User: Which sequence fits this backbone?
């Protein structure tokens, strides 16, 4: 059972563009929603995370939008740079639990 | 460097051999997690420790897999009688606050 669905699978934008990656979850018990950035051959790095008591969280150029009623959340990258080219994963978890459940990933390419 | 470390970074083995991986978490983190990631997919949860106690195991963790965290510090993941389907990136993560997990660089296993 795929509990976190992520789209699109790949995304190409020009430098300065605003890529948007979307995730949808099924389990209403999830209450922690992080985004990770992964470069080839490296482990995932925690970028930003949100809890369902807020609808938006911003850290630097990264913003999470959260829609609890739709069970959806998205990552926006402002003023994207070629160095942002990586694979991005959304995830979900119960803070009372242990495991993160990851989406399938989005391969982002930012062209110069 | 105070991040999560994993050793070795790469391991090539022949089918049927046993392999062991080590993870050193961030020093004050009492929670430790193992995940497996195959090419083009998000990480999948394997097991979770709080201090030295193994509190949760995924159904992915067959009886050929065993994990330990003997003194609540570093952890080892052993795979016995490796199969080609075990080829993957094995990721370790640690956390102080439940769900906020920080990943290591991973161990890339190739089974020939």
Assistant:
């Amino acid at each position: 059972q795929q509990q976190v669905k992520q789209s699109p699978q790949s995304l190409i934008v020009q430098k300065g563009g605003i890529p948007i990656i979307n995730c949808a979850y099924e389990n209403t018990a999830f209450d922690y929603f992080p985004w990770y950035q992964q470069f080839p051959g490296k482990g995932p790095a925690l970028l930003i995370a949100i809890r369902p008591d807020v609808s938006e969280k911003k850290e630097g150029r990264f913003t999470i939008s959260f829609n609890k009623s739709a069970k959806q959340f998205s990552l926006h990258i402002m003023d994207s740079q070629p160095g942002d080219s990586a694979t991005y994963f959304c995830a979900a978890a119960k803070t009372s639990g242990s495991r993160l459940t990851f989406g399938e990933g989005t391969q982002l390419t930012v062209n110069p | 460097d105070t991040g999560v470390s994993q050793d070795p970074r790469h391991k090539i083995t022949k089918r049927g051999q046993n392999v062991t991986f080590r993870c050193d978490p961030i020093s004050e983190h009492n929670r430790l997690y193992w995940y497996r990631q195959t090419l083009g997919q998000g990480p999948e949860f394997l097991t979770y420790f709080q201090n030295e106690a193994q509190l949760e195991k995924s159904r992915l963790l067959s009886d050929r897999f065993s994990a330990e965290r003997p003194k609540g510090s570093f952890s080892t993941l052993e795979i016995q009688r490796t199969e080609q389907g075990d080829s993957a990136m094995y990721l370790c993560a640690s956390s102080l606050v439940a769900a906020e997990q920080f990943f290591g660089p991973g161990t890339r296993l190739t089974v020939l």
Observations:
- The mean pLDDT of chain A is 95.
